[in-house]
Amino acid sequence: MTEYKSDLLRLLSERGHIHQLTDAEGLDALAQKEIVVAYNGYDATAASLHVGNLASVMLLRRLQQAGHRPVALMGGGTTKVGDPSGKDESRKMITQEVITSNIAGIRKVFDRLLRFDDSPTGAIMVNNDDWLSELGYIDLLRNVGPHFTVNRMLTFDSVKLRLDREQPLTFLEFNYMILQAYDFRELALNHGVRLQLGGSDQWGNIINGIELTRRMNGIELFGLTTPLLTTADGAKMGKSVNGAVWLNEELLPHYDFWQFWRNTDDRDVGRFLKIFTDLPLDEIARLEALQGSEINAAKVVLANEVTKLVRGPEAAEAAEATAKATFAGGGVGADLPVWDVPAEGATIIDALVGIGFAASRGEAKRLIAGGGAKLNGESVTDEAHAITLTSGEIRISSGKKKHGVLKPA
């Protein structure tokens, strides 16, 4: 591990946040002598960020913890264009009303994880629509265009992958990297930003911004990326069997969020505790060293700590209580998903689809055939199994980790 002198880079390094640095020595020196203003950008394509974004939000949190100033850039302007990075097809156009609503939803996570105030290290949130939508097209071409060559733009992974797969890349998307580079310059000139943070897939875009600002204004800027997070089995971080693991409770119940972390692979527990919690490193080392079934205690700590940060302490307490009632007590917890059984009754297939454990009747049939469908802990193997409820409740399960409650309508 590289020996850094600044508190900032030491903290980021110790907790596993650093993948690439444009000028480690220069940034280390800068962080020792002044408050570094750094930003990360988030396009407003949904009403919430997801777990895949959480590492970069924690990076901003670490920056503030080390005595520096984080800037959360909302991509109100770039959302209208679409980042081609990692995409096989063009992003669907989103209206201004939806973008504005999405930004309001995303803001909730930052309010929990960052401190927003007028102090020198207080976080700020800005929207790149404020300057990008004011740009004149001809002015942009004349002033910024000469600093980009199509030859080099074609070498970037976001472009190459799309072309190699013979998937369309629109001219609109092709401009995304220019606009993101312009963002870095704008923030450097008007907000004193010296450092751009991002995931490893943003390295090329970050370099563009550094070079553009140096050529146009002679300002030295820096870039830092986090590792692309995958689980120990190689899966992309932030996905569950039901799709994205959203940070906002409006899109994902507290229990499901908590349970995602509780189901962490044994091999990932220590790494995730470092990146996604504020626990001291010596405590993390103790938890990481647990063996056998004892590692489950560390997973509960991970689930509680992340849920406290992202959803609040009450959400963590409720989710853990639900887990205890469901697993240890063999009952049902208050935070589980619920489906109301119609008065005329329903089949097990209706229930699995209705509660969201299967996306279709076909998927429900496969779940039943594989022995994964259970009522009150007993496997159901008959697709036509009827469920009638006039009172009380039934626990429905999909495999060992997904549970819900059936109640009379």
Describe this structure in words.
The chain is an alpha/beta fold and 409 residues long. The chain has three domains: 7-226, 3-Layer(aba) Sandwich (Rossmann fold); 253-328, Tyrosyl-Transfer RNA Synthetase; 338-408, Roll (Structural Genomics Hypothetical 15.5 Kd Protein In mrcA-pckA Intergenic Region, Chain A). The chain is 45% helix and 14% strand. The chain is built from 18 helices and 15 strands. A six-stranded mixed sheet has the order 1-6-5-2-3-4, with helices on both faces. Strands 9-15-14-11-12 form a five-stranded mixed sheet. The chain has a two-stranded antiparallel ribbon with strand order 7-8. A hairpin with a 3-residue loop joins β14 (394-398) and β15. Catalyzes the attachment of tyrosine to tRNA(Tyr) in a two-step reaction: tyrosine is first activated by ATP to form Tyr-AMP and then transferred to the acceptor end of tRNA(Tyr). It catalyses: tRNA(Tyr) + L-tyrosine + ATP = L-tyrosyl-tRNA(Tyr) + AMP + diphosphate + H(+). Belongs to the class-I aminoacyl-tRNA synthetase family. TyrS type 1 subfamily. It is found in: Cytoplasm. Residues 334-389 form the Tyrosine--tRNA ligase SYY-like C-terminal domain.
List the SSEs and their pairings:
Blueprint: H1 7-14, E1 20-21, H2 24-33, E2 37-43, H3 51-65, E3 69-75, H4 96-113, E4 124-127, H5 129-132, H6 137-143, H7 150-153, H8 157-164, H9 171-174, H10 176-191, E5 195-199, H11 203-217, E6 222-226, E7 239-240, E8 243-244, H12 254-262, H13 269-276, H14 281-288, H15 295-311, H16 313-328, E9 338-341, E10 346-347, H17 348-354, H18 361-369, E11 373-375, E12 378-379, E13 386-387, E14 394-398, E15 402-408
Parallel strand pairs: 2-3, 2-5, 3-4, 5-6, 9-15
Antiparallel strand pairs: 1-6, 7-8, 10-13, 11-12, 11-14, 14-15
